[in-house]
């Protein structure tokens, strides 16, 4: 039965269980305490948790979906993994849904899976564990259509041991929690806490927000939007990559929100696109006037993001 479900629904259901398994690996590595930190570039860290979580997700998905195009942040590495890292069951809630009819004829060749096995690595190494997410995004013909945001340390200070997992499929909606509206009559913007510069700051100042929430990770910032804690996510920098935004954008779109670059153009997530989001990130919640807020961004900022 479940095996007969449409590919997009099966793949989303498998991505939920793989992201949950990766989250457990991330927690276990932190508990053991040897993070194995490597510098990938300026202000760009990788740990054993990033590497292992990616191996878990890619091994799990490729075993079930051979020849599927999967692009992970941590590049190609060995997908020989311990057998208990491979999960092949479906998330029961997702697989029991009715797939929107527009996806019924989608085949493997239309899909690219973007994996950020651990978003918010600098926060992970600094003990800001709530900011960490595992991101699995599915693009169909270049469009971000489905995504999983797993938060392995959600509410862990109150004894939650499993975190939480939010998923979205455009046309079907969001699952894993109930989206909330942010407060009316004010503007709260969320942005980076560890990758700021003069241009990032100039964009924020031009919006004159009532409040700025600086947190780590693209996944966590989009959670801020769909949880109603902020109205907009603004990052006037070339630093984010397609694996950072594919899953969050899909979940945001499924909730009725919008994500573009700082010029107002959508990103494409086909297999041949360049990885950096050179136009920056500008995202707003459902019902918000995206274009009106975007029109406040100074040309000088936009000129830096070409
Ligand atoms: P942030 O909002 O700074 O936590 O960034 C969101 C995502 O984009 C994280 O995965 C970061 O690692 C990545 N990112 C943002 N800016 C940079 C940068 N300058 N260099 C490398 N990665 C970046
Ligand atoms: Mg990331
Ligand atoms: Mg990452």
How is this structure best described in words?
With 306 residues, the protein is α+β, with helices and mostly antiparallel strands. It has helices at 7-32, 48-64, 92-95, 121-125, 198-207, 218-226, 242-254, 290-294, 299-303, and strands at residues 38-41, 44-46, 69-72, 111-119, 133-140, 143-151, 164-169, 173-175, 188-191, 211-214, 232-235, 258-260, 281-284. The chain has a six-stranded mixed β-sheet with strand order 3-4-5-6-7-8, with helices on both faces. A five-stranded mixed β-sheet has the order 10-9-11-13-12, with helices on both faces. Strands 1-2 form a two-stranded antiparallel ribbon. Strand 1 and strand 2 form a beta hairpin. Helix 1 packs antiparallel against helix 2 and helix 6 (218-226) packs parallel to helix 7 (242-254). The relative contact order is 0.14. One magnesium ion is lined by residues 116, 119, 218, 244.
């Amino acid at each position: 039965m479940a095996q007969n479900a449409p590919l997009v629904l099966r793949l989303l259901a498998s991505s939920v269980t793989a992201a949950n398994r990766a989250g457990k690996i991330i927690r276990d590595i932190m508990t053991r305490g040897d993070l194995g930190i490597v510098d990938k570039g300026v202000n760009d860290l990788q740990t054993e948790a990033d590497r292992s979580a990616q191996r878990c997700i890619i091994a799990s998905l490729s075993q079930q979906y051979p020849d599927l195009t999967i692009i992970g942040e941590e590049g190609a590495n060995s997908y020989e993994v311990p057998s208990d890292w491979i999960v092949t069951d479906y998330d029961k809630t997702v697989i029991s849904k009715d797939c929107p009819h527009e996806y019924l004829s989608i085949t493997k060749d239309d899909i690219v899976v973007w994996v950020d096995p651990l978003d918010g690595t600098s926060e992970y190494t600094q003990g800001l564990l709530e900011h960490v997410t595992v991101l699995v995004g599915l693009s169909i013909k270049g469009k971000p259509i489905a995504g999983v945001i797993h938060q392995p340390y959600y509410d862990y200070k109150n004894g939650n041991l499993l975190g939480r997992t939010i998923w979205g499929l455009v046309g079907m909606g969001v699952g894993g929690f109930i989206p909330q509206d942010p407060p009316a009559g004010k503007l709260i913007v969320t942005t980076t806490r560890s990758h700021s510069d003069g241009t990032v700051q100039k964009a924020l100042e031009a919006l004159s927000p009532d409040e700025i929430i600086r947190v780590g990770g693209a996944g966590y910032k989009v959670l801020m939007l769909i949880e109603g804690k902020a109205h907009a996510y603004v990052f006037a920098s070339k630093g984010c990559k397609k694996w950072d935004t594919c899953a969050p954008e899909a979940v945001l779109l499924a909730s009725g929100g919008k994500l573009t670059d700082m010029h107002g153009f959508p990103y494409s997530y086909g297999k041949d696109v360049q990885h950096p989001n050179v136009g920056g990130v500008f995202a707003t919640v459902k019902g918000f006037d995206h274009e009106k807020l975007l029109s406040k961004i100074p040309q000088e900022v936009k000129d830096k993001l070409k």
